[in-house]
Amino acid sequence: MDSFLFFLILCGVLGTLIYRSRKDRRTLRELEEQLRRLEASVTRLQREPTTHGVAESPQPRKPAEPAEGWNSPPPLRAEPQPFVPGTGRPEPRSPVPRPQTVPPIPPAPAAVESDLHAATPPPLPPLAFEEPQPAPGFLPLPSFQKPAFNWEQFLGVRLFAWLGGLALFFAAALGLKYSFDHDLVPPEVRAAGGFLLGAGLLVGGVILRRREYRVTSQTLCATGIVILYAVTFACHAFYHFAFFGVIPTLLLMVLVTATAFALAVRLEAQVVAVLGMLGGFLTPVLLSTGEDNPLGLFSYIALLDLGLIAVVRRKRWDYLLGLAAAGTVILQAGWFLKFFTGAKIHAAQGVFLGMPILFVGAFAWAVRREWLNRWVTGAAAVLPVVAMAASMTMLFTEDLASRPGALFTVVFGADLLLLAMVLLRPALLGLESLGGGLVFLLLSVWTVGKLSGDLLYWAFGLYFTFAALHTLFPGTLRKLRPKEAPPVSVWSQFFPALSLLLVLVPLAREFTVPWMFWIVVLGVDALAVLFAVVAGTVIGLVAVLLLTLVVAGLWIAGAAVQDIGLSEGLLVIGAAAVFFFGAGMLLWRRLPQRSPADRHSHSELSAATIPVLSASLPFLLLVMVAMKFRPANPSALFGLGALLLVLLLGMVRLAGIQALLPIGLASIALLEVAWQSAALVPGQALLPLAWEIAFYAVFLLFPFLWQHEYRDRRLPWIVSALAGPVQFGLVYFLMRQAYPNPVMGLVPIAFAVPSLLALAHLVRTVPDDAPCRMDQLAWFGGVTLFFISVAIPIQFERQWITLGWALEGAALCWLFRRIPHPGLPRVGFLLLSMAFVRLALNPAVLSYHPRTATPILNWYLYTYGVAAAS
Questions:
Q1: What is the pLDDT of residue 48?
Q2: Which string of DSSP letters, residue by residue, matches 778-789?
């Protein structure tokens, strides 16, 4: 009974509003007619010439004869008239005055008539060069600017009409719900009454579509659409009528949506779309019975959104799309908070991926039809972000963390939708960084807080998928949209490095990682190389290579946990080394080289950085393996080092990167030092001794094998000469531990022989005018003298060290007379200075030997004498 009284009151209010609207429109039409008539009269008076405030009778215009002193006027233009000086009025054509007549003036209100008498004199008549004015009786109506928004009309007419329509909708919805709760009438009667009421409102709105009932017509139509939506939804979701299955209900809702679209377009009625949208989104809330039916609910919402998208496309009421996205997000949030559980993950996938697909599809349609704007873009971008936010909540819901496949389907699906928007509109490149950042955040939270050992395969697969999506996308964008693709985002360069950061977490937590681990790491490295080639930047690749070194180091450090041996470690290092060397060569050839003017610029790393890192990082991994496993037989370790050395020298030959030579020498020496300090067995030193001599021979002979090509280069010859002292130190300490003997001074003499032979070869073969001849001779001659000088303190002791320095300094200064290289006297002076300091300022020298009976001919004489002579 209360609902019936409430319905009657609403009908009374609606009738009053209709009557008031009709009366206000009649009054407004009368006022507009009077205003139009007054404006026409004012315009006519202003265009007629007057004399002393009295209007002259209009004269018909006709073509005039050419006047003397004037050019002939163009056809259909009035003859120019002279002006009376000082008056600004035209001079009369004839001395006979023409009769003055006053044209009839339409009746006007007194206020307007007084304003006309007080008006200023009219403007001057048109000159001959002006366009002719329209004839009397055909004057156009004046144009006047209307206010941007008529608040009086809105508050007095439209607002109450819309409120009445909304009240009618609430009355129908609440009446239906009241009948549901109290079972007043059978369900079939309720549904039939609802359909009749909605159809009646539509028919009434169409009948009242005349101008004076425009707002009322639109309100009735909008309310009818909403009621039809509500009744159809109730028949399917709550009554479960046999006829209202999934397909018939969808077809009926499609019909209602098409009707709303047609009415909104035909009636030019935004209110039909707005109220229809508002009622459509309120219908599930008002008719909710507490039962979960996501398929029916969001199928209904999808149809409602499709109707609004169609209306926006046709009438360009773009804000409706933003409102539709907001309503969809609110209903998604309401369903998620009330009904979502871990068992409904598949329903959540449909809810949080289906609705964004709908709006991104509208975005694609807008791009193709060129009606894209901020409302369409914002609506399409908000829904995927909401899906990722919901996924963050799902991480902490029951057992979903142990089902990453179902969980991250939503995450990567939303990410793909954002990437699709960027692909359609490259100017939205920031969405790619936004999506990648959110995915990385979700993966990080899951990895740190929820990852377990049995989910490692899922984890590595997700990490690689994340890296692949955001590494390949910039190249895909450039391939498909070459003219519109913006520069590569700074954050896009580091997505492979971010995936390797995620890989570090299982290693840091000491999980036993499977072999898929290294497939993922090398795959991410390959993606970084591909990105560097496409984007032309190596900053991200440098970060990936360094992180790969860290990953391999942690993996080797946890060898006991991983249950790996020396062979497995060497196999992984060898595969990584071959890949790194290949990547370095590829980038060296594909990336542009910097000019000398940009050598000190830090804005972009040089292309040579990648080959250098590719050559040095595998040797560092070998050093880790040597110190971790400490193999007694270093053949496998040194064999892999020899392979890496061959690859390095190949890069030097093919790419001409001379900086790799000192890096290779230092890397091999570091590997030998690491093994000797950790695993040298004195009784088994013959094999490592052979390896060290072989390494020395490789570096010594390398520039001689291609002497013609390197005759003008300094660095290869310097490395070849320095390889002797470097390898001599390793060989000497190895023999001192494994084969100690009283003639150790022969070791430096043996190393001096190859340097001396190399010096003799260069003296015979290098022309005197060669630019690097002095450098080559100076380095090999100095190294030869170094070995000879070192032999003295090695074979002897105490003062013989000082004598060796003094003799070597003198020999270098002597060599400068034959080879005028500026470095020789500098090194010689340094050695002589060291000998002087040791003999003059070191009091321990006096205690080397006890004093002998011979006062002069003793060890002091030859020590200080030889040093002074030197």
A1: 64
A2: HHHHHHHHHHHH
DSSP, collapsed to helix, strand or coil, labels residue 242 as: coil
Segment (H or E) for 29: helix 2-47
The string of DSSP codes covering 45-78 is HHHS-EETTEEPPP------PPPTTSPPPPTT-P
Q: Cα Rg for the chain, rounded, in angstroms?
A: 48
Name the nearest CA neighbour of 324 among 368, 363, 269.
Answer: 363
How many beta carbons lie within 10 A of that of residue 235, not counting itself? 22
- Predicted local distance difference test score (pLDDT) of residue 859: 67
Buried-exposed string 549-566: b where 16+ CB fall within 10 A, e elsewhere: bebbbbbbebbeebebeb
Dig out the tokens for 294 from the structure.
């996501």
pLDDT averages per 10-residue partition of the chain, 870 residues:
45 54 69 83 73 46 45 47 51 51 48 43 46 46 46 52 64 66 73 86 79 74 82 80 78 78 76 73 74 86 86 83 92 91 89 94 89 89 94 83 89 95 91 93 91 88 92 87 80 87 87 82 86 78 85 78 76 82 75 48 51 81 86 90 90 83 92 89 87 94 90 90 92 88 87 91 85 86 83 72 80 79 80 80 64 60 80
Q: At residue 68, what are phi and psi to the nearest 5 degrees?
A: -70, 135
* Rounded Cα distance, 167 and 420, in Å: 42
Closest CA relative to residue 465, chosen from 423, 502, 493: 502
What pLDDT score was predicted for residue 91? Answer: 54
pLDDT score, position 710: 86
> pLDDT at position 350, please?
92
Which two structure tokens, joined as six digits, stand for 199?
């159809």
- Dist. CA 455–CA 405, nearest whole Å: 10
Q: Percentages helix, strand, coil for the chain, rounded to the nearest 5?
A: 75, 0, 25
* Cβ within 8 Å of residue 632, ≥6 positions away: 679, 681, 684
- The answer to whether 225 touches 276, Cβ cutoff 8 Å, is yes
Q: What is the dihedral of CA 523, 528, 534, 536, to 10 degrees?
A: -160
What torsion, rounded to 10 degrees, do the Cα atoms 638, 644, 647, 648 define?
Answer: -100
- Sequence-ordered list of residues with C-beta below 8 angstroms from that of 195, at least 6 positions apart, any chain: 228, 231
pLDDT given for residue 21 in this prediction: 57
Q: What residue type is assigned to position 159 of the chain?
A: L
Token pair belonging to 779 = 């380095």
What would the two tokens of residue 486 be? 């913006």
Q: Which helix (H) or strand (E) holds 168?
A: helix 159-182
Q: How many CB atoms lie within 10 A of CB 347?
A: 18
Q: Which residues contact 186 (CB under 8 A, 6 or more apart)?
A: none
Per-residue H/E/C for 608-666: CHHHHHHHHHHHHHHHHHHHHHCCCCCHHHHHHHHHHHHHHHHHHHHHCCCCHHHHHHH
Rounded to 5 degrees, what are φ and ψ at 352?
-90, -5
Nearest to residue 693, comparing CAs of 629, 774, 649, 747? Answer: 747
Query: Which two structure tokens, joined as six digits, stand for 560?
Result: 């006991």
The pair of three-digit structure tokens given for residue 139, joined into one six-digit string:
């004057």
Q: Are 787 and 751 in contact (CB under 8 A)?
A: yes
